[in-house]
Design a protein that fits this description.
mainly alpha
């Protein structure tokens, strides 16, 4: 087999030069980015369906909304059982109030932190220290994180706006770089040649 032959046989003139049976890359198809251009980032539960709102995007959004709300409700039931355990242990009213307030505050902070993650990227320098210090808070306030997923999925895929802005900016930078490298072919053709 020489260099010009492919495993799928010789392509016909004007045919596809790709080998037969080679899978298309992710994001290929109508409206997909060109090869060599930036690829859209994948979002949890959505993949890259957020780019064109295809491949069951609406069903995925509905599933995330229903699933996150159901998990939040199940978490609230579990916390209710835990609170009943405290009442049975007769630890006192003050401890019960502290536990409820602690869960409420942690849930509110987890909601805010999760929501902020959907709309802006955290500062990389501050992220490592903040991540380690907030892991316990996010674990205790898991209901807040689930409610943030529910609320955001009513509007868009959680994080879609941030990913779309970053992807659009990356495409614009790519197009500017490509235009600077190749110049404007139309301007070159329309420019008259100098006569000697």
């Amino acid at each position: 087999m020489n260099d010009k032959q492919t495993p799928g046989g010789n392509p016909e003139p004007g045919g596809d030069p790709e080998p037969a049976g080679k899978p298309e890359p992710a994001g290929s198809g109508p409206g997909a980015p060109e090869r060599g251009g930036p690829e859209p980032a994948s979002i949890r539960f959505f993949g890259t369906t957020w780019v064109h709102h295809d491949s069951g995007y609406g069903l995925r959004r509905a599933g995330v909304a229903v699933g996150s709300l159901a998990l939040a409700a199940a978490g609230a039931v579990v916390l209710r059982f835990a609170f009943q355990g405290l009442e049975i242990a007769a630890v006192g009213r003050f401890v019960g109030i502290l536990v409820v307030a602690g869960f409420a505050i942690c849930s509110a902070l987890a909601f805010r932190r999760t929501w902020d993650g959907f709309v802006r990227r955290p500062d990389p320098a501050a992220r490592s220290a903040a991540d380690t210090s907030s892991q316990g808070l996010m674990l205790i306030g898991f209901i807040g994180s689930l409610l943030a997923y529910f609320c955001r999925s009513l509007v868009e895929a959680p994080g879609e706006g941030l990913h779309r802005a970053e992807y659009t900016a990356a495409r614009e930078r790519y197009e500017r770089r490509r235009g600077a490298r190749t110049g404007n072919p139309a301007a070159k053709k329309s420019r008259p040649k100098k006569r000697h």
